[in-house]
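Q: Start with the shorter request: fold the first protein.
A: Done. Sequence, then structure:
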Amino acid sequence: MKKTTVFAFGMMAAVIGFAGSVCAQTALKDVQYVRDGIIHVGMAYEISERCDSLRPRTLRGLGFLNSLRDHARDLGYSDDQIDDYVNDRAEKDRLEGMARAELARLGANADDDASFCAVGRAQMAANTRVGWLLR
């Protein structure tokens, strides 16, 4: 076989492999580490809004959100794809609902701010991601 034919087949295989990986890329909303990280930040924010005695670790939270962006980039998502995900109103609503459902599961009651304090303190004591984002 001629070198040009071998080279052409090699290039075709590389292009097909690359195209396949791009086409098969999971939707960013389905990347569990990124999705869960955003939910944890939302939970910490909600707790800090509802509990006067707990505050968000703002710089830590911003650093963590940047690490989620970096993780998405490392997985091959473009800045445009990440921005589309972050700015999608329906996705924001879905994630807020998931965060509130998890807070309720942990014992936070929408009618009782003290319950948010209890959940926040429990998360801090357990050194969870949510607790790590609070002080």
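Q: Next, the second protein, separately.
A: Sequence, then structure:
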Amino acid sequence: MDGSLNMLGYGLATVGPGLAIGLIFAAYINGVARQPEAQGRLQPIAILGFALAEALAIIGIALAFVI
């Protein structure tokens, strides 16, 4: 039962990064739809936010396997 509880905890922990990624790209799409000329400035910020949110999920799965 130890392993399944770790994976259950990881499954619950991925809700946060999943929501964050959705919100990041929703804001990016909204910003580009409002001002298409700002795409060059918004895209690197959106990709950086995606990478940081995804890093939380990767750290979470590493901890799920370690503990």
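Q: Describe the second briefly.
A: The first helix runs from residue 2 to 13. The chain has three helices and no strands.
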